[in-house]
Structures are given as C-alpha cells and as structure tokens.
# Entry
Amino acid sequence: MELASVDPSTGEEIGRYAVQGREEVACAVARAREAAVSWGGRPVEERCALLDRWRCALGRDADALSAMVHREIGKPLQEALGADLLPSLHALRWVVRHAPSLLRRRGIAGTRAWQEPLPLGVVGVIGTWNYPLFLNVTPIAWALAAGNAVVWKPSELATATALLLQGHCERVGLPVFVVTGDGTTGRALCQSGCDKIAFTGSVRTGRAILAELAHSGTPAVMELSGNDAMIVCEDAAVAEAARAAVWARCGNAGQSCVAPQRIYVHRAVYAAFLEHCRGVMQGLRAGVDYGPLRTAAGRDLVHRMVWDAVPRGARLLCGGYPLTDRPGYFYAPTLLADCHNALLLYTRDFFGPVVAVCPVEREEEAVRLANASAMALGASVWTRSRARGRRIAGQLYAGLVSINEVLLDAAHPALPFGGARASGYGKQRGAAGLDEFVLWKTVAPHPTGGARRHLFPYDRATLSILRGMVRMQVAEGWRARGAAIRELIAGVRNYRRDRARGCEHSE
Ligand code: NAD
# Structure
C-alpha cells in the first residue's frame, strides 16, 4: 500500500510512500534493539557529539529543509525557518550542552545511595506534522541523548520532510529507524515491543494508542491536543496582546497545539482588543503571511465550526469563508466576538486561523472560565502588573502558562512541556524530558558485617525496642519524649542482657 503527500497550497502530489506494515515495523524495531546496545553503552558525551553533528548537518541543509516544510505543510518560508528549523537547532544545542550533566549519577541526600540513568532501550516516536521538524527532532534527540535507539513513525502528512531528516540521521550515524505509513503503521509500532512510546497528536489517537499499549503495559509520554485559554486583563498592553493573538492563531494557519483557542478579554478593553485584531487580520496576505490548512478536511472542519458558532451567539467580524480564488486549502483569517464556553470552538480542539473572543467582567470569572476545559495544555495571561500576572498564572490549570507571551515558551528547549487532563501526560524537552527516556535506577550500597537486628529469629527484646522507637516518633513535649527514651534504653539493655545470656527475655 502507498500514501501520497500533497502540497496544500496547490493540491499537487509531492510523492508516494509505502505504508509499512507489521513485518517492516518488527524489522525496524529489531534493528533498533541491536543498535541500542552499543549506543546506550557509549558515554553520553560521545552521543551528544554525534547529536551536535546532526545539528550542524541540519543547519547546513537549512534551505532544502525549510523549502520542503514550506511545500509539504504550507507554512510561509519565514515560519518554516524561524518557527520550525531554528527552534530545532536551538533544542539540539541545548540537549548537547546539558545532557551530560543532567545524566550524571545523582547522590541521595542522607544516604550512601545514588541514582544512575539506565537507557530504556528502544523508543518509538509517533509524530505529528504541524511542526514537522521541531516536534519530531526534540523527542528523537532527547531519547537518543538518554542512550536509546529510536524507531520513528512520522505523520503521513509530513513524510517527505521526515525522509530528509532521516537522510541526515543516517549520514551522521544516529540509531534512528524510520517506518513510513499511516495509523496502521503507528498501531504496529505500538504492538512491536518498544520500551516506551513518545506520541504527539490528537486526543482521539492518543486514547487509541493507550488502549493498545495497555495490553503490553508499555509506558508512554503523551502530548495531545490543547484548548488553550488566553486572559487579557484590563491593564494589559492591548495592542500587543491582540497582535500576539492574531499571530498565534493565524501563523501556521492556526495549526499550533498551544495557539490560544479561548480568548477571555476584560470588558474594559474588549472593544479595543477586537479593533486591533481586526486591523491586523485584514492586512494579512494569503500565501505570504499565512498559509493554507494542511488538508481539505481540516479547512472544511474550521468552516463548520465557525458556522456552528454564529447562530449560537458569536458575532463574525471578518473572514468566515474558504478562499476560492486560488488553489489549495486556504481559509480567510476569521475574527469572532461574543464567543462563550458552550461553542464547539471553545470545547473541541481545532486548528485554523480563527480568533475567537469572549468578554469577561472580572478576573475570577476569567480564571473560572479558563479552567473549565477538558484539556489543560497551555495558557497565557496578559497584564502590566507583575503581581496580577503571577497570581493568575498560579490559578490557571495548564501544563505551561506564559505571562505576556504566546507560543514561544512551548518551543524553549529548557522548559519542560506537557499537559494534563485530556491533553496527556509526561514531559517533552527540558531536564524532565530526559527523565522520560531513562530509568533512574537506585543503587544502595551497604557495608558487610554489623548486627542486622531485623533478620530472623524474631525476639521479644527487639519488639520492645521497636515499641520504644515508635513512641519516640509520636512523643510530644519533653516529658513524653523522656519516657520514650527511657523505654528505649531499657529495651536495649534487655536486648543486650538477653543476647549475653543467649536467651529470650520476658516483658
Ligand atoms: P493524529 O492523532 O491524527 O496523528 C498523529 C500520529 O499518530 C500520526 O503519525 C498518525 O499516523 C498516527 N496514528 C494515527 N492513528 C494511530 C493509531 N491507531 N495508532 C498509532 N498511531 C496512530 O494527529 P495529527 O493530525 O498528526 O496532529 C494534530 C493533533 O495533534 C491536534 O489535535 C493537535 O492539537 C495535536 N498536537 C499536540 C501537540 C502537543 O505537543 N501537545 C503538538 C502538536 C499537535
């Protein structure tokens, strides 16, 4: 079987690729397992040196890579370079620099024990397409740095880009084995005995994967959909917040998991916010500032959701239609006012260039509405007050909360990223992202010799010492503590006496 990848700006076919099945996936996993032995045995510094060569190779091939992302996903070249390739290079630099110290043995305070990282073996990465470089390079690089081999099932919507990346991996000598295909290939990977799955994608697929993994008990890190809230307070820099909202929702044609989907704006600045949004959106140029949706089905879904909202109270201020004067899956940047939490636009995750705004009267109302979601990936709060920003950020239920920013923090390699509720669990990137791909084995050394009173045979003297120890734990006030100490001392004396006599003492 084959699948075709299509240029979403023109509808032209880019290439046809095999849909690999169980056998090919099993073969890739077997090769990865073999490679994992030597890769995991190398010092982390050596692994990072190779990852750095991968970084340099990607940087040198920037033109071809970004051109392919531009063609296959449809995002403007500026975004392919600035929001996909460049963050990937930053991320690789970060992991190369920090993995050696983060994967050092860790002493455990107050003990002789330590923890040391053990690679898991083979990590299956099942990827998405909306940032076909960054969202795949990062789990792959973090898993590799931690000493694992990787079997990568890229999205069927970004196969051409994935094969370019694979070429670089091969040339550098990284143990990354690509299997191309659709959901059936991904499913086969979940059944293949990988030691962990790193998944990025929709809630629906995520749940299907978890059901599959339950059979083998394979652990997973799940980066699923978001339904992010953005709160704009009355003291926010309104024009700045509006520009950021439009950029986040119309950049990449609104196909970012942390693009604010529910925008709660204080009534005092509501009209100004909408006016700024409209001003920016009406100036956006199709094919220059914003690209098409990745698929025709994606474009049609946005259209249905917009027109579900209008009869239910949302006010259409601009857009609301697919572009018919050009080929491809473009949708006009759309601004909706007076949205509310009952709309599909506010409850379902969706991708599309739609800015959907809801007025709020008070800070508490904004926080309550923001937290009333089945998903909890990202959120942002906009205010000039530091204290208010921190207060609201502290109250928001989300995996990543930005203050006066959107999107960018999700791409910072040092910041652990991951959601809660239906948005998944586990972290990608940062130090926590490395922890996902190792077993932190605890090693506890003990000297030989010593009394080892806990071993058989049990006796009454030990029992009375244990009673004294328990009383010590709960004794309050000097009197009670004194009594407990006396009891303990008496127990120890009895123990010694009995041991000297070679008999059990009676209480
Ligand atoms: P998707 O869930 O349709 O597909 C993701 C991947 O899973 C693809 O590679 C696909 O082939 C594979 N797949 C499909 N069915 C499978 C199965 N049964 N078993 C195993 N693998 C299977 O999602 P998508 O269209 O690639 O991405 C869009 C979604 O991803 C959106 O919902 C978006 O919110 C979410 N997303 C989340 C993040 C995040 O970091 N949390 C980032 C980007 C996108």
